[in-house]
Amino acid sequence: MSTEKSFYETYRERVKEGALKLDKAPKEIPQNILWLKSIATERIEEIDNGLSDKIFCFRTHNRKEISLSESMKLDKSEGDYKFGSSEHYVNLLMHYAYEAGKKSREDDFKRATESMNKALEAITEIVDNAGYIEYPENY
């Protein structure tokens, strides 16, 4: 009998390890996450018209199917609102969330780098104007 783990067993172990590193679910979802979900939903459903047999979602209010635009106007605390989707739809939402997070980090890094470079240039100018920087003649 082989004691070697199957690919699936290894996969499940890694998934569990990753899941244990996540924080517990928040009591309230932050506003930036809700915005991101709305942006990704808009991209999938309205811009790309990406709904299909594999990529779908449903929204119901009081057991009546409603559209994305109707659900956006709806006070979801009133009545019985339900939202569901296919795994492919969730995968697209995750893709857009990852891409948005990556772009946000890149933009933040770029802004911080530009800000630090400006500060270093200003410091160098002050030090140079004070005569503390010596430039070799044969540079």
Compute the average pLDDT: 90
What is the number of E strands?
Answer: 3
Strand content: 5-15%
Which stretches are low in confidence, meaning pLDDT under 50 for 5 or more residues running?
none
Structural key phrases:
single chain; mainly alpha; three-stranded antiparallel β-sheet; 139 residues
Describe what you observe in this structure.
It is a single chain. Strand 1 and strand 2 form a beta hairpin. By secondary structure, the chain is mainly alpha-helical. Helix 2 packs across helix 4. The protein has a 3-stranded antiparallel beta sheet with strand order 2-1-3. The chain has 4 helices and 3 strands, in the order H-H-E-E-H-E-H.
Furnish the topology, listing elements before pairings.
Elements: H1 7-21, H2 31-47, E1 57-61, E2 64-65, H3 68-73, E3 81-85, H4 87-129
Antiparallel strand pairs: 1-2, 1-3
Helix pairs in contact: 2-4
In short:
With 139 residues, the protein is mainly α.
